[in-house]
Amino acid sequence: MSPLSRPQPDTRLWSSGTAQPGAWADQAPVPGATSPTAPALAVFQHRLHLAWRAEDSTDSMWFTDTVDGAGSPWNLPYVGTSDRPALSALFVAGTETLYLAWKGQQHDQSIYWSTSADGHKWEDQQILGGAETSRGPSLIVFRDVLQAFWRGGEHLITSNQNLYSAVHGDTGWSAPIGLPGMASAESPALAVLGDTLYLAHRGTKAMLDDDKWIRLWSTTNGVSWTSRANPADAYSDLAPALAAHDGRLHLAWKSASGPEIWYSAFDGDHTWQPPTRAAAFETACSPALCSFRPSVGENELHLAWRGSTL
Question: Among 84, 146, 227, 294, which is least packed by CB within 10 angstroms?
Answer without folding.
Answer: 227
